[in-house]
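Risk register update: the risk of archive-format incompatibility is retired. Evidence:
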Amino acid sequence: MKSAPAKSPKIVRVIPTLTLETLLIQSSGGPVCGVDEAGRGPWAGPVSAAAVILNPDDLPAGIDDSKALTEKRRAALEPEIKARALAWGVGFASVDEIAELNILHATGLAMCRAIEALTVQPVAALVDGNYRFKLPCDVQTVVGGDGLSLSIAAASILAKTARDRLMVEMDARYPGYGFASHKGYNAPIHQQALQTLGPCPEHRRGWAPIKALLEA
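Archived output:
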């Protein structure tokens, strides 16, 4: 008699909590923000970042890593986060700044601007990833932080929705590239538009495919 095939273990995804924030508040003695970015990889448009200090007594339901949410859900959560957070801020670094500084340092600049836009200045920040950016407060990096920390997850939502909105506006200024759909990322429609129209001022000149077109 053949035995039944073994069942694959069920994968349970971790839901973000305020555990990391609570520990850091206890050690730092002050407000803690979550920080995340959006748009490091696209061929066009700025990189954005957001910083959020959540109110533990008034949390919007459903905050999660922005990549795990639909565009509709992110759009619904954005005003909820802004209305209920103790403070939030969004910052950008332009295509020119990306060209001058490189994408890593431009991301750090956007993060600094997001923190500086907070109406409550944090003592420390939880930052998604493993790179320790130089920010206007102490930094604790968290790999996979947008799936672990509610504050980072909230920041990921604000960074993503702010940048997406800007890319839709950019689509109206530079029609034909499809910015409203692919948000500047590498996509077949984007590649085709570049071959037909060439780069526009919002394309990142340091990216190899854009550089090759400019030098052709």
